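ASSEMBLY PREDICTION REQUEST
Request ID: AP-0331
Submitted by: J.K., bench scientist
Number of chains: three
Total residues: 859
Priority: normal
Notes: Please return the full assembly, not individual chains.
Input sequences:
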Amino acid sequence: MKEMLKADQITFRYAETGRPAVDGLSLTVRRGEYVAVLGANGCGKSTLAKHFNAILLPETGTVTVEGMSTADEDRLFDIRQKVGMVFQNPDNQIVATVVEEDVAFALENLGVPPDEMRRRVDEAMRMAGVYNYREKAPHKLSGGQKQRVAIAGVVAMRPDCLVLDEATAMLDPIGREKVMRTVHRLNREYGITVVQITHYMEEAAAADRVVVMSEGKIALEGTPTEVFRQVDRLRALRLDVPQAAELCHALTQAGCPMPDGVIDVEGCAAALYRLLTGRDAPDAENAKEVAACPQP
Amino acid sequence: MLRDITIGQHFPGNSLLHRMDPRVKLVLTVAYIVMLFVGSNPAGLAISIVFLTALYLTAKIPLKMVARSVKPILPIILFTAVLNLFFMTGTSEPLLAWWIFKIYREGVYYAIVMAVRIICLIAGTSLLTYTTSPIVLTDAIEQLLKPLARLHLPVHELAMMMTIALRFIPTLIEETDKIMNAQKARGAQLDSGKLSQRVRALIPVLIPLFISAFRRADELAMAMECRCYHGGEGRTRLKQLRLHASDIVLAAAAALVFAAIGMSNLFFERIG
Amino acid sequence: MPAAVRVEELSYIYNQGMPDETVALDRVSFEIEEGAFVGVIGSTGCGKSTLISHFNGINRPTSGKVYIGGEDLWADPSDIRRFRFQVGLVFQYPEYQLFEETVYKDIAFGPGNMGLAREEIDARVRRAAAFCGIEEAWLARSPFELSGGQKRRVAIAGVLAMEPKLLVLDEPAAGLDPEGRDTILGQIKEYHRQTGATTVLVSHSMEDIAKYADRVLVLSGGRVAMYDDTDKVFARAPELLELGLSVPEVTKIFLRLREMGLDIDTDVYTVKYAVKTILAARAGKGGGAPC
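STATUS: Completed
Returned structure:
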């Protein structure tokens, strides 16, 4: 698969003398992939995210977006169009006083002709599920709705990659779920690459790949199962573990024969059923699907 | 509460007035204000009132909204009226004389005309904001001022600032409310005490508000850059302003009314 | 002893008489016992924030009564400020209320408003700072130099320093990472344990409520849907899910086991208790048999 983003040995410091926020990190994100970057506050995950569309430039090392270096000023708008960013506070990224005008903002900046703009704005609002509020004022929307407006505003640029920098941190559970569904749909149906910075492990559990950062470096990397089975390691990195994994871990320590790599409700229930009855769970086949991201 | 502020409120709708080109509306409003001062006499004002009533009915905006928008400036209206009432001296016998105050017929006449004029002014300009969304209005201002950009006036930047201000006013009002509640919960006295105490009591509200506004500005600037904002050059707009035949017809009709207001001076003496 | 909080037929209507009139609370009645740790849950817009703003008189009931320590809050409206010191209210994202030059002065703002003597204020600031894990060295620093989690703790200390009899916290851990969340909630629990202050914790996180609260109040559409001991509320998990609320993940696992046909208790809401239940079921064997 083609490379979408590539960070090669990058280091970044906010103050010249300070500790690096990102410290010699390398990461490649493939086209169409869904990568979650997990880590405690101050681990450098947001700093890393800001390197992917040239808000920050690395002190050493290089970041490339589909082969274009973020240090190349001539390609700045190409890069920002390819890699859309959504930030934490939904209020602070909406510019206009009407939803559809805000979704059009990037296209206006790029000088897209009005007729084409209309089509792309409508399409983006439908993709993000905000078409029904297109004429509303942003401040009348809930946090989750505002965040989807912000996503639509980015999607209108037809980016190849979406970077979400703790985009769900300020939302309530329902808002979070809706935003997650939207993002997963963009990834699945439109092939948009997603890099999601988060500290919610249940969001990370629904990704293709999880990268755990600590002190500016990658501490753990792998599929959600590979990462979340390492309960002690995650705790040492000041992170949560899904309760399913925690329960299996605790039972294993109490001497129960539990299978390895159980991280979700279904897997855990199936394992417990086997533990208690000695037989396979009744419908183990459709166990995988449920997890953290419900199907639309 | 702070949330009750209604200045510049917009009533979405689909009336003839709502659909009118905002540039035409803006120009007509300015013209109306001028005519209100030119035709400042009972006949002129009467035409004004009929004209406005017709417009409010067309726009389907309840007339009680006029009362609501007049309410905050009621003290100014009363002050002007009282001033005219007492200080206007006339040629005829005073209607009322008490101590050093004398009220003449002219005083009453002037007071009424002045008060009605202010109310017409408010009602007319409110109609513009009621029927035009702030963003469309900003667009209209930007377009009308475009010629000035050649003189290196930052027209686009000003319009952008206005848009952002409009976008963030409700957010900041809500935030002010939250901060006030938080400080009240810590025993701050915001709604009682002497004036000097009250001014001092605002510090715990204003400082967090400013800090938050700066933080928002910072984040917004970054979000705008991420969406390729680079000033007004080469920008296109989602909504294009186009003059329709109906705009021209309406503008012509309004011009006739304005002419009538101006003509009224031939029959009545101008006041104010 | 009178209840710490007694709410009687409380209704609150926003924009009454306007076209956008909304009933936020609809004849809500309940009591919180002195010294209890109550969790309040409900989806956004269920009236949680409106309810707690009634505890210290920020909101005035449209109808109904609120009693704090047996006293009617609105018996004398001019005296409402007195209750602000008895009821410590920590709003969402409280770090946005910081304004003083130093951490010390900010924590001292509440006690200062109470008109206490300087020595008493000093003692309270230090006690509150200690509860919130604020180091001595920070007290002289500007609150704006601190990290997000640290600021949050300073803001909470600012409320604790008033030493309220009733402490109410609205989403005190929102937006924090797991460690920051555990630190703050742990400190609140410790404060509750040591001072015996009645504590009300509003949260979206069922895991947090399960871990800290003794009793749970469930609000839905401006009404009390449930109010009971924590295990009894989570035992009604299917009803919670129906109200659009979530349940802790362990509870979901046990609900699933039951769906698979196991005769097992579903009032499990913490991992610790889950382990105990599973081990007991294994030992007894009988509990694990399909029913």
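REVIEWER COMMENTS: DSSP finds eleven helices and ten strands in chain A.
SIGN-OFF: pending second reviewer
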